[in-house]
Amino acid sequence: MDFQDRLLALDSAQLKILIAEILAGKDLDDKTRQYLNYSVIETMASNHPQAALAFLLSEASDLFKDGWMGSRLIYTSLGSWAKDDPMAALEWVRKNGKKFPDLVNDNTKEGMISGAATNNPKLAFQLIGQLGVKDTDRSVGQIIDSAKTAEQRTSTLAALRGYLAKIENKDARENASRNALQSIAESAAETGFEAGSKWIEGAGLAPSELVSSLGGSFEYRMKSKDTGKWLEWIDKTLPPGEESENVIRSIVSNWTREDYQAAGKWLAATPDGPTKNQSIRAYVDAISEYEPESAAEWAMTLPAGKERTQSLQTIYENWPRKDEASRAAAEAFKARHGIE
After folding, report:
1. CA distance 64 to 62
2. Where do the structural domains in the chain lie, given as residue ranges?
3. pTM
4. 224-278 pLDDT, tens per residue?
5. Nearest 5°: phi and psi at 339?
6. What's the distance, CA 146 to chain centroid?
7. Residues 6+ apart with CB under 8 A from 18
């Protein structure tokens, strides 16, 4: 049994005894002593949060003078407590927040909000206002990050709609909605294409919400092997328009940077159409810096017109000019395609 497993087997009283023994240890340097104490109290914070909070604000008040460790431990304690009894944790914050403002701050309050969100996202959204948190977007993100399953995402989305409805300022409401929907969609993407796309399709998102939800960092959260499937799904699911095109280009750009061969293979097998054209544009932009000739071949598969012209212009601008020969090749490309 390793050290962490042994800690988990101890109750709060036994953990306090262990801390006292660590403090009394003559063979430990200060850095090691602080590390061990942090590990012990972190275990107490996760499994015995009420005891940990009482200990941190009394007997352990001098152990973490830098503030960061103490704040982090209170974050963990409040989060653990709020999972089981959020109202009791809220009462504790109200009683102790003004007494210990350096420790009971917005960051530690977010721990409580995150913990409450695990079982009661509606209450977690209410706590944002009740706790007077200043960075509301960050707290909303904490709530959404707590939704790990399809069922939790569904209940969190329902609670989110109630929270957004109470934001009077239109710009603030739309910004909060966009950021939150993106976070929820990213969470779904991490579960894989089949489960993720199924949840998004069943989430009841309006067309504009659907497009918005796939912005942000969606392409970074999906599994690389699923990228082609997501692009095909987007082609069938998203409404046409500039925002949808931007989503496609963003995904293909990232995919090309990660695995240009896989992206190129998918492009070659993809039927002609608007989605393929946007994908080609993104692919061309990405590879033009190191394979301009290949990029040019792909660009010429685009329909004649503005998009092809823009892609050819990008290739010329990105063409590597390492020596006289490459500079001459770039100028020859410019002349051949009439680039101004």
Report:
1. 6
2. 225-340
3. 0.82
4. 999 999 999 999 999 989 999 999 999 999 999 999 999 999 999 999 999 999 9
5. -80, 130
6. 11
7. 7, 10, 40
